[in-house]
Each structure stands twice: as structure tokens, then as C-alpha cells.
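Researcher: I'm preparing a figure for a lab meeting and need a structural model of a single chain. I don't have an experimental structure, so a prediction will have to do for now. The sequence is pasted below. Please return the structure as C-alpha cells so I can convert it later.
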Amino acid sequence: MRTLCAVVLVFEAIVIGLMIPIAINLEGMDPALAGGVWGGIAIAALVLSGLQKYTWAHYAGWALQAAFLFSSFLVAGTPLVPIVFVSLWVTGVILGRKVDVQKAAHAAYAEATEGSESSAPGETAGATGGARSA
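Model: Understood. Here is the structure written out cell by cell.
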């Protein structure tokens, strides 16, 4: 799950960074304000993508999704972009959890079959140094 979420955050950081010239050119927003708002969110997305192994960073990713969604209302016509990324984030969480469950089941199965293969029936180590008993 965390890998999918990290990938979404990296691509989201690129798109968030592209919101800066859109806000400046379309809305006439001050470049310092646009850079501060979306530049800060983009940097936070990059940092959080690298920290997704921590639970708190995953929850911070949810907060970043909300921040991107609410900040998009400052520029007309752009709220669709964060809606797409929030959808990708939710899909990544759902599919990632399914993959995590399947990985855990596979690891448990592999561990169970590995343990049964090491003690094959009919083979015992006898007192004479490992001779086979019939």
C-alpha cells in the first residue's frame, strides 16, 4: 500500500508544481503567494513520498490530499485535478491493502510449506549418526 501511495505522491508533486504558473497566468495571483502555497504542498508531497514507511506519514498524506483539494479552489477550473489525485490516492490505499493481505497469505503459506519439507516422513536421525530407519 505504501509503495502505491508514494508513487501517487511523486506524480502529484509534479502536477502541484505546475499549478504555480497556472495560478499566476490565469488568475493573476502574486507569484510569491502561488509559489508559497503550491510550492510548499509540492515539497511536502515529495518529502512524504519518501517517508511512507511510517504510519504518521501515511496519515499526513491524507492531510496533504485535503490541502491540495482546498487550495485548488483559489484558481478557477482546477478543482478537477486534485479530485483525480484523491481518487488515485484512495485507489492506491484500497488496492495496496489487498496486495498486502495477499503478500501476508503467501508468506504464511511459504513458511508453512518450508517447515513441512524440512522434516520428510520416514527420515529420522538415529543414535548411530543419522542412519535411515525403515
